[in-house]
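Example record

Each entry pairs one chain with its bound ligand, uracil.
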Amino acid sequence: PRQLVTGPVATMDWPALRAAVAACTACSLCESRTQTVFGVGHQRAHWMIVGEAPGEQEDLRGEPFVGKAGQLLDNMLAAIGVSRQAAEGDDPARRVYIANVLKCRPPANRNPQPEEVARCAPFLQRQIELVQPRIILAMGRFAVESLLHTSDAIGKLRGRVHRVAGVPTIVSYHPAYLLRSPLEKARAWDDLCLALQTLG
Ligand code: URA
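Structure tokens for the complex follow.
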């Protein structure tokens, strides 16, 4: 991908980036978190999923999408043969890297605030540069705002291919929203199919 990050984060490798996130005190979320939630999956994957922020389970376990929304996400990915457990020997098209816009849980799972998103953005941008995914799935409003810099509704943005630093990016609903609005799962499935088709 084209370069996304500027500033000190721009030259960090994986260990340096992980350490910088773990030590981050750039916003007040550092005061309420149990731990930071960096990302999970393969560091060289064709798929990259971007969610919103850690919830209660993620904050406790230090891994993204391990609660109910995460189970749904894992099931959706399994349906297209993609797994966060896919390893080195596996086809890179089955590998995924999963990260959030925010690396710290907002208190009581409130929405991320613009300042928090802005402070945390270089970490996600550097993760994208290091993974070099072939497709990004932006799930939910905050992933879309952070990556595509628009506050247009998901319903308006989905169904076509966007670009983030040159990487094809598909917009879809957040899995937690799908749990509340199961009828939208059909649309989310269409979005996954568009992503598969774009990956070729
Ligand atoms: N929702 C998210 O957006 N990310 C997580 O890691 C868990 C729930």
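The domain at 8-199 is CATH 3.40.470.10 (Uracil-DNA Glycosylase, subunit E).
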